[in-house]
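Technical annex B. To support the medicinal chemistry partners, we prepared a structural model of the target in complex with zinc ion, based solely on the information shown next.
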Amino acid sequence: MKEEKSEKIACHVCQKMIPKAAALHAEGQDYVLHFCDTSCLDYWKNPEKRKKEET
Ligand SMILES: [Zn+2]
C-alpha cells in the first residue's frame, strides 16, 4: 500500500490531480477511470446532465 499512497492520477472529468488511493473508480472491460469525488463520477455517468453543465 505504500506505493499507492504517493501515486497520483488525474480525475477523468476535471483533471485535478488526486492520490490514486483516494480516487473513485469506474471499471470497463479494458480500462479503469479515476474520479476525484462522486460529483465527477456522476457527471461522467450522465451525459445528459453533462450537456447542461457545459454551457
Ligand atoms: Zn474530478
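Notes passed to the chemistry partners:
The radius of gyration is 12 Å.
The CA atoms of residues 5 and 31 lie 21 Å apart.
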